[in-house]
User: What shape does this take?
Amino acid sequence: MGAVLSFLGGVGAGLFGILAAAGQVVLFAASALFHCVRPPFYPRLLARQMIEIGYFSLPVVALTAIFSGMVLALQSYTGFARFSAEGAVATVVVLSITRELGPVLAGLMVAGRIGAAIAAEIGTMRVTDQIDALTTLSTNPMKYLVVPRLVAATVVLPLLVIVADILGVMGGFIVGVVKLEFNAAAYMARTWEYLRAEDVISGLVKAAVFGFIIALMGCFQGYHSRGGAQGVGAATTNAVVSASILILVFNYVITELFFAR
Amino acid sequence: MKEDARPPGSSPKIRIRGLRKAFGEKVVLDGLDLDVEAGRSLVVIGGSGSGKSVLIKCILGLITPDSGVIEIDGRDVLAMRPREREAVGEHIGMLFQGAALFDSLPVWENVCFGLIAKRRIARRDARGRAIEILAQVGLGPEVADLWPAELSGGMQKRVGLARAIAAQPDIVFFDEPTTGLDPIMGAIIDDLIVAQVKRLGATALSITHDMASAQRIADTVAMIHKGGIVWTGPAASIRDSGNPYVDQFVRGSTEGPIRMEVRR
Assistant: This one.
């Protein structure tokens, strides 16, 4: 009986811990959003973050998208050939890329690259008193550190996903035409035939939400890091893991909102 | 024994009464009272974990105390709205223990960060102003374009001091200003602190456990122990205070009323 109570106590404590952490994240997000609409604003920092998050993430997102499109075309072809549906390859590629793979893969790649960098930078600033120094210099750390990253990631990730969509479809096109010997014009016609605006728009909405999540978790974990280098390391890991999980959770939620019948 | 240079009826620059702060069950500040007279330099000495840093962070608004009163120029800062508190903060400078320079900014931008943030100087004029301020702490113009990571510990402290005095504050806080420096560089930093505080006519509150540094920069010394002030007196009398806590701390003796929490 004692062991059962101890086990249940542990489960309850764990549950309360998760709820408390979720509450902290929500309060942090609310505070950040509040500061997003109140001056002072830092356009120079915003521009710097947009370059850091957007421009410097282009290579990794581009490579991921091209090869995902190529693999998707190849897999679809070999699978669909079993029931003579090879003609659907172009449609499957474009719908998969715009609805799912573009935003999710770009989100996960940027979470690994940018979420970790944000958590490490802000975490180091926390443990070396730089965030306290900002406060003593009449600068609100939420406005100076968190808001530019949050806005930049939310704005830039949809732009990255547009690039990922184009390159992903192009990857499928290359494999379809060069390796699988589809007619180029027919492949492009099938690509456009069933594509609707909501397919692309849902992907871009997902991208904006994922960008917000990546920056939020990076900033939150870094802002609350404690205990020197080890604490910063833990914050970095937590930022990437929590952002990745939340991306997958919100991917389902947004898909449900757009496409559930 | 307490020095009182204040004219009758005037209030101290900083007045603290009944300040209490606990982290969980650990009480760090336990009803602390302290006065810092205008234009004077007070140094708070005490062992590790005695509450020195928490005291300074409470005054700066970086930590919210559980109870008590902190008055600056006779106004309770804990009762102020954020904007009022921010306005008070504009007249305060702070030198952090590790200098806490922003490592994503060059030295000149670190020095003038507060001036640019408060729009008291245009960004295009800031580099020139930073070079002038760096000269006041003995650094040449070539330092202005370096990054904090390129500086030695002593140079980082000097840049931190330059940043703390850039806005010509009324009050300057120094957190362990000589920690991590060799004795010569420590003395140089102390001399710079004394010179700059005197030039500004500012009130200074420092915390340290370096007795040599305390004697160089203090007019008045206060000893903190277990979250309260146990002695206050002139810096010159610290070696014959007659207070057992101060005597033990100055001698660095293990025998006396101060019991360190050490597991054997």
